[in-house]
User: Fold this.
Amino acid sequence: MLTFCFYNVLAQDQTYAEKLGWKKGQKVVILHVDDVGMSYDSNEGAIQAITKGVATSCSVMMPCPWVPAFVRYMKENGTLDAGLHLTLTSEWKDYRWGPLAGKSVVPGLVDSAGALWSSVPQVVQHASPEEVDREIKAQLDRALTLGFHPTHFDSHMGTLFATPAFLQKYIQLGIDNRIPVMLPAGHATLIREQMKFGDEGINQIRNIGQQLWNAGLPVLDDLHNHSYGWKLPATIKSTPDNLRKFKTTKYKEALQSIRPGITMVIMHCTFTTEVFPHISDSGPTRRGDLLAMMDPALKAFIKKEGIILTTWKEMMERRNSVGK
Assistant:
């Protein structure tokens, strides 16, 4: 059983990248696409961003209707670096999904429409840690039933980070199944700034990271989770060219700003069709992510800066090779 010890691990003499065999001072980055399986447009965006662009990894929302199509694509075209985007919310107005465990098994996760709650605070208010545990296990079970072996776990809308009890279930799922979990537990510079964590909060995260490492799993040094908020200024027309230039510039700035170590950069690359506006009004920023990942200028920038792109699969392979 996972336990939480609070010894002082604030001093980080060595990054997790160095522990995994990369050189001191190197920036190692996972360019990660969330929300795969949510829709046809989401699948196409992730596939194009990885196979035609510089994105390296993605994660799949198992309760959503377009999961089988994505799993079939992976089987027919070679397995991508794909994890589970463990999903406890259903945030859109008319496009909804429910828990895989079933309403009778996880009633606290279900709203009056029979779908998962729309927001993280609602999940915290109504669901027990035991229900969360049943549902994330059901999502892993469905993946394995489909023949999909995830390279990692992460959390849709950060719900599994909302309470210590939820976080414990998330971490334990990874340890029990020897599947890496997304947790920025190295220097954690960007996540400290975004979440307004003090030393005590960062110390606790680093402690959990050490437990993951001791369990034989790789750990991130940091997490960049700002791209969803990058909106094209209202004074600039939302054309593909303008979206591409804007998002490419933002990603260049982000990659310049990160510290050495392993950083996961989250995005939501989507090949938006005429259907997507009926799901969400976030189409432009999602399409911009895809256009940036496929922009030759971003690829050239990454090469010029000496940034190393990696995957969760490579991280786990390196972790297996270095031992304790």
